[in-house]
Write a sequence for this structure.
DNA sequence: GAGTGGTCTAGACCACACG
DNA sequence: GTGTGGTCTAGACCACTCA
């Protein structure tokens, strides 16, 4: 007899769990509602806790769940759209953008951005730290690297560090002519300090937006912004926020 | 005696492992080189295999490693920049873009895109499947949803499905005036079929690029493209590919 | 068939939040 | 203190690739 077996690809348990949970989320849970704890859920589905966690992890990655240690697992609201479209030829820090300056210091250029900035090793850069708040929570942390040579007029009157200094650097940038900018988006994981500012654990997935600002034929500044990948949807294009609707990030076809 | 303890926050083992491995990758390994297998590595570091795997998983997420079942773990090349900038007012499928039509069918509008398309439930849409090849590997899979009403002239002469049909739909689109487009990027996980076309396992992290094409005051088409998050860096802006350099996705600060 | 990564288990302990 | 999610262990078996 033909061991037909058709295509009984043994679907992993966690994969099936994901599907079941997703349907349950759509049908039986409201945004913000807390789920049963992991031990209960695992028992209910007859799997080990680790397996259940694998399903929860992916659902969190897809922005459907939010888990917080010591608290529990809650149903996440739809991702917020944050506009990252290139606003004509504007420097960061121009007329009330969504960012709040946090700190600033002057150090040697870090290796990761040295090539981007086209600087010599050892050249000094101002590092401006900013936070982006949206809908009441911080959604992104940014490091803006500005070579000291880009803002030679920076007054020594400003504080040597802190938010005031940051605003000083941003102010000086506005005086430069901006020729253009490049931008790239990729997946990364939050470092220890970014994680703290984004209220996530280290290693949390983030969307890294790298922007290179060109002025006077050279790279005058580089911004590296890390957005919470679980809660954010980056929007581009003229219409910006809320134009594109709900999460289409998973189209199951098992 | 003061139990100073200073700030001995017990850093998780996998986190420390990540750091060690990353440094080893930078120093001792060439791109494409294969690492020792997971059991050996775990033994070498004196941790359980699951812990070692947690570190490898994150390094893969950051694009530093590539793991393939039955083969091994290799050092990944730097991410490729793929240009996703909005080319003026062009429809998909215009003069040799990077996409290869794969298939096409006509079905009722799926729920996930119904609201985006502003269609009634039950309205018929052409679903064009395309693949994007870059540097010899498929980097993205796309579904382009075109309401039948957007391309009324579509000839019945074309094949009812398959690549030829896909090209037919794309051809018809070119005749429409394009008013504008919205775009959004978010993190997702690959469904079973996307995973197959991208040569990844289901659940692999992807960057989902959703584009809404507006023509004649309404949404004439919607594209949902999933890019391999491990190997791709999405680039925008005039200068496109290769303008922005190496992976700055992790700035450790432990 | 041998070796690889992928899945799964049944425990244990830890860090954190909250009452 | 109690309960939550986060980390970790030491196994086991499975699916896949390749010689």
């Amino acid at each position: 007899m033909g061991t037909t077996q058709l295509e009984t690809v043994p679907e992993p348990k966690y994969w099936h769990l994901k599907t079941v949970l997703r349907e349950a989320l759509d049908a039986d849970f409201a945004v913000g509602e807390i789920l049963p704890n992991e031990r209960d859920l695992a028992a209910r589905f007859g799997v080990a806790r680790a397996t259940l966690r694998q399903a929860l992890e992916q659902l969190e990655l897809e922005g459907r769940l939010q888990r917080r240690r010591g608290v529990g697992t809650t149903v996440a609201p739809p991702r917020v759209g944050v506009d990252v479209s290139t606003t004509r030829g504007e420097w960061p820090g121009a007329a009330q953008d969504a960012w709040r300056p946090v700190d600033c210091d002057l150090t040697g250029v870090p290796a990761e951005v040295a090539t981007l900035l086209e600087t010599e090793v050892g050249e000094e850069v101002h590092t401006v730290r900013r936070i982006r708040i949206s809908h009441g929570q911080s959604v992104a942390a940014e490091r803006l690297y500005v070579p000291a040579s880009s803002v030679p007029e920076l007054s020594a009157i400003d504080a040597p560090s802190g938010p005031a200094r940051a605003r000083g650097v941003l102010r000086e940038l506005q005086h430069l002519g901006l020729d253009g900018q490049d931008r790239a988006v990729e997946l990364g994981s939050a470092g220890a300090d970014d994680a703290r500012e984004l209220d996530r654990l280290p290693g949390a997935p983030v969307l890294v937006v790298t922007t290179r600002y060109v002025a006077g034929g050279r790279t005058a500044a580089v911004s590296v912004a890390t957005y919470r990948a679980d809660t954010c949807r980056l929007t581009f294009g003229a219409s910006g926020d809320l134009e594109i609707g709900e999460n289409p990030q998973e189209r199951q076809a098992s």
Q: What stands out?
A: Chain B touches chain A through 60 residues (CB under 8 Å). Chain B has two domains: 13-75, 80-235.
